[in-house]
Design goal:
By secondary structure, this protein is of the alpha/beta class. It has one domain: Metallo-beta-lactamase, Chain A. It is built from nine helices and 15 strands. β4, α3 and β5 form a beta-alpha-beta unit. α5 packs parallel to α7. The protein starts with a helix and ends with a strand. 42% of the residues are buried.
Length: 283
């Protein structure tokens, strides 16, 4: 009985903060839910949604937090107003302890067909969190070791017909090592960003738009020069019927053991160690 009681207490104790920054890329199908843990113990989400799993906050995120003995995230950063990047948030607001929310400017000018729903969502965030809108050049100091830098889009960038190109591109840096999160940026944004490789250099790159192929992607990835490339996706990115150029691109990265995807690998944990990104996976 004493052993059982001790085990129960242990399961209720919170997990200790990691020694280095951790990125947990959860397997949510076509969508993204990246849970970041910093050495100070801060937990934040960079996007939180799924195209297939509208209940993913309850069915995936909450069990994950419970199993890993982690608190609900205090902060969320949402790249753009596509549901597969934010539809977990209402559940998190209801059950979690969310205090800060950062949005891409595209939330201010959504598709007219979705404007009413986005406005209600923004109001819900404003009522329950400290809400801010981000653009390139801004920084958020997460803790003494961890900084979030906004690389894209520039202030006033037109949303236009392609809301994906207005996605936030974020560089998260901790103790000299960094990861870049790209939302769903498309050809125009990828091409423009690739002209400034100094800003893009990183250890880990989360591929734009779930790894969907664009002719601009190889140059964009080359500008980022990551040690490890990740994709949050529902599909195998080496399908036999894919264009030859696309197959070759992903095969090259996989051959060097520098590419992981949630479709193939499930949950992906990346730890930004001084020696480089260390990974753990689980289907």
């Amino acid at each position: 009985m004493l052993a059982l009681a001790g085990l129960t207490v242990w399961h209720q104790l919170p997990e200790k903060p990691p020694r280095e920054m951790e990125i947990n890329l959860l397997a949510v199908g076509e969508g993204q839910c990246a849970l970041v843990r910093t050495p100070s113990g801060k937990c934040l989400l960079i996007d939180a949604g799924s195209q297939q799993l509208g209940d993913g906050a309850e069915s995936i995120l909450q069990p994950f937090l419970r199993e890993r003995r982690l608190p609900w995230p205090e902060m969320v950063v949402l790249s753009h107003p596509n549901a597969d990047h934010f539809n977990f948030v209402p559940y998190i607001l209801q059950h979690g302890r969310l205090r800060q929310a950062y949005l891409g400017a595209a939330f201010d000018a959504p598709d007219p067909a979705e404007a009413a729903g986005i406005a209600r969502f923004r109001q819900q965030l404003a009522d329950q969190t400290e809400l801010s809108t981000l653009h390139a050049g801004q920084q958020v100091q997460i803790d003494p070791d961890t900084r979030l830098e906004v690389i894209w889009p520039p202030e006033g960038y037109p949303t236009g017909k392609n809301v994906n190109d207005s996605s936030l591109v974020l560089k998260l840096t901790c103790r000299g090592h960094s990861a870049i999160f790209t939302g769903d940026i498309d050809t125009a944004a990828q091409t423009e960003l690739a002209r400034n490789p100094q800003a893009l250099a990183c250890d880990v790159l989360v591929l734009p738009h779930h790894g969907h192929w664009r002719e601009s992607l190889p140059a964009f990835v080359a500008a980022c020069s990551p040690k490890l490339m990740l994709a949050s996706t529902a599909r195998n990115l080496r399908l036999n019927d894919a264009p030859t150029e696309e197959q070759a691109f992903y095969a090259q990265w996989q051959a060097r053991s520098r590419f992981l995807s949630t479709a193939s690998n499930g949950w992906i944990l990346v730890t930004l160690t001084p020696a480089g990104p260390a990974t753990n996976i689980m289907r």
